[in-house]
Amino acid sequence: MTAIPTPAPVVPGRLEQMSTRIAFFIAGFGIAAWAPLVPYAKARAQLNEGTLGLLLLCLGMGSIIAMPVAGALASRYGCRRVLTAGTIMICLALPMLATVSSILLLMAGLFLFGAGLGTVDSTVNLQAVIVERASGKTMMSGFHGLFSLGGIVGAAGVAGLLGLGLSPLQATLVVIVIMAAALLKAGPHLLPYGSESSGPAFAVPHGVVMFIGCLCFIVFLAEGAVLDWSAVFLSAERGLDEAYAGLGYAAFALTMTAGRLTGDAIVRRLGATRVIVIGGALATAGMLLATLSPAWETALLGYALVGAGCSNIVPVLYTAVGKQKVMPEHIAVPAITTLGYAGILAGPAVIGFIAHGSSLSTAFVLIAMLLAGVAISGKVLNV
Questions:
Q1: Which parts of the chain have pLDDT scores under 50?
Q2: CA angle 111, 102, 89 (to 5 degrees)
Q3: CA-to-CA distance for 235 and 240, rounded, in angstroms?
Q4: pLDDT at position 204, please?
Q5: What's this model's pTM, rounded to 2 decimal places?
Q6: Residue 340 CA: distances (Å) to CA of 97, 213, 250, 336
Q7: Is 71 helix (H, G, I), strand (E, B) or coil?
Q8: Cα–Cα distance list, 171 to 28, 113, 223, 283 (Å)
Q9: Which membrane topology term applies here (predicted)?
């Protein structure tokens, strides 16, 4: 008896592109919704800064463990199922993070939350590679722009709800409703398959994938540095009032979001290699300006330049991973995502260690040197 051939996957089109954008928004919205809840969790569980820092490692551990697993599951069961599962994990974790006071339950909630975020982030980038390749157009920057936009909406929205007098639990329930509605909208057009590449479920990244992953690590390291240390630097070193010290990251986030939302046209005009070279150089100049200038106003301009410079480097690197043939993309995409997250997680600790041994300015200058290395690597990568 002749076997019935398995039908080929439907080629992604406009609806699949829309669902990818929504999924990126969900990822950014979900992770940012946690930020305004941190002080409440700290007070509820009566944590000091050191204990809170250790607890937050549970979030990172959940993400890093989940990312390669998500890539393997998406390859077997499809992006739709894995993205849905990851979103449900986020929605289950948020009420825990908004209510529990037990350290053990907070650890469990943060691990589940991190696993959900890692699952969604890894899988949506895999879908983005497939959808962009099928379109024949440059789309990755726009996809990542929706992640950044989701982050701004999530952080500002939850902060606004809390400011209106809602409890942390009530605010998270609003977040869950929005995420569920977004998932229902995107779900029918999320890819029911993953990568068609054959190969093992897990493998240590090597060759050009490792090189791309290291570049992602540096860019995310810079992002983590601005996120966690720019306010400390502006208040302690530049005398800016603590109430306004968050303006450094705000300037970074705004230019990064704007850069990504307009990035597809920029990449088409300049080409991927120039985007890495020019973006890395711009980020280097911005980090040096923010660190070495004595005026806080100039430092804000520097952080804005870092955001603009970094905005399209990572999307271009994801596109490059989709083109390489060294490793199957269902392994390669989670690998560079994991390395990128490692940069964000390692950033605060590395900078703190360097600052303790010398100064915070020295730590930022070293990051500027690494960003200069990214700019030089753009020529070497030749994407």
A1: 1-7
A2: 30
A3: 5
A4: 67
A5: 0.80
A6: 25, 7, 21, 6
A7: helix
A8: 17, 16, 27, 35
A9: Multi-pass membrane protein
* Tokens read off for 126: 């895999």
Residue appearing with tokens 């240390």: 229
333 near 71, Cβ under 8 Å?
yes
What domains can be seen in the chain, in order of their start residue? 14-189 (1.20.1250.20), 207-381 (1.20.1250.20)
Token pair 């250790």: residue = 54
Nearest to 156 by CA among 22, 253, 20, 267: 253
Query: What tokens were used for 187?
Result: 């779900």
Q: Which residue, chain included where needed, has tokens 């289950």?
A: 92
Q: Which of 85, 314, 261, 5 is closest to 93 using CA atoms? A: 85
Give me 133's structure tokens.
Answer: 């390749």
Tally the residues of the chain.
383
Question: Which stretches does DSSP call E strand in the chain?
Answer: none
pLDDT score at 79: 92
**8 Å CB contact between 209 and 324:** yes
